[in-house]
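#onboarding

Welcome to the new folks! Below is a worked example of what a typical request in this channel looks like: someone posts a single protein sequence, and someone else replies with the predicted structure as tokens. Don't worry about understanding the tokens yet, we'll cover that in week two.

Example request:
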Amino acid sequence: MSFFSQVKGFQKNYWIVNVMEVFERLAFFSVRAVLPLWMVATADQHGLGLTFTEKGLIFSVWAACQSLIPMFSGSFTDNFGYKRSLYTAFSLNIFGYILMANATGFWTMMIAGITVGTGTAIFKPPVQGTIASSVNEENSSLGFGIFYWIVNIGGFIAPLMASALRGNNTDGYTWHFVFYAAAVATAVNFIPTIFFYKEPAAKTGRSAKQALQNTLTALKDKDFMIFLMIFSGFWLMFMQLWDLLPNFIDQWIDSRDLAKLLPAFLTDHGSVKAEQIININALCIILLMVPWSIITGKFPRLVAITAGIFVTTFAFLTAGLFMAGTITAICIVFFSFGEMTCSPKFSEYIGVNAPADKKALYMGLANIPFALGWIVGNMVSGPLYDAFANKLIITRQYLLEVKRVPLDTLKDIVEKYKGSNPDKLLPETIEKMNIENFNFFPYFQQIMGVDQYEANRILWEAYHPWRIWVILSTFGFITIISMLAYSFNKRKNR
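Example response:
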């Protein structure tokens, strides 16, 4: 069947949910692009002022909601209705994004994260179910391929939009614009849902009890579960690309060399914003996924998976060892190649090896390593970053331990700043400001008599913040060894 014949075979609902996916991804990825930065940004940056440990805990709970709920929400969708599920998802996400825009601390941000995570989890089953019911045997591969393309298109455009909306230190931070824009983009989805989307024919869906019973049966498949546990190491690294690396780039990486290679409209006063550097990953997927899939298509599945994890691990490690933005960008490119090598083969391996009558169930449980990697990664990375790489803490330590600045002097700086009550800062933010969450970096530059880049270099050489990537990459090396052992055991038992 020709390409155009396949496209012509897509039902109307197929195109409608793809439009929904565009706006949902625009909202979600625009928020996710700047959220790691805003959550830990200090008062002078109009941020929330959380610790990295607090940020990691919020992301872990968010991950649990977004990743684990879809394992059981399919039955909810079948019984409650696709349209009603979509209305519920949109409403939750809009409320969550508005709550983020008005968050004042840890608990309001936690509630916002849970709300958005739950809304996203409810959104996925009706969309994926509609795609599945709108294609046929001949065009299903193309149909899901286009859908995956749409996801990445949204994932690429969103950070560019967020980067423009959130502002900067020179022109003034406007983080809340990103969250309100996400709420508006989500609200747009009510239009196609109300006026154009047609409720799929009623299905004899499983009850929640039946879904749970079948899930528990699949979880008893020892070989399957071992494979999922091992692959969670890949997702741990992948999610830190989004959740932690932007903070590291923002605090430590000198992107002036990278800015010289880009057109002026993509730069920010001679540097490149963290979310734009991370966005190289989505660009690589968009441009290279199809041809790379052709190249790796004939590779043995476990070989491709192991090789992909090997590449991502070394790219993950190297990205944090140097301060040059160009090296970071190159590492993200290599990381993307590793992702394109192992991620599709992971799904293929499960699909081929799942029992014939349980393929859908096994594919649904393939979300487990994503959940584990995202949850564990943030539980671990937050405290590690505070311990080894948080520039706020390192700067304060250097002032106290090396420069011997009196503690009272630092306290006076904080009180003077609070007394000035800068415009556009929440009174709650001013009230809770103290020496522990204050940005002393400008003061450090002043007493050292250097610019921000030389100041970064001094702190880098004194405290070696790159150590956090050595620690985190250990999970990747353990994953490689475990996957090699798994592959060897599979060949041995043939």
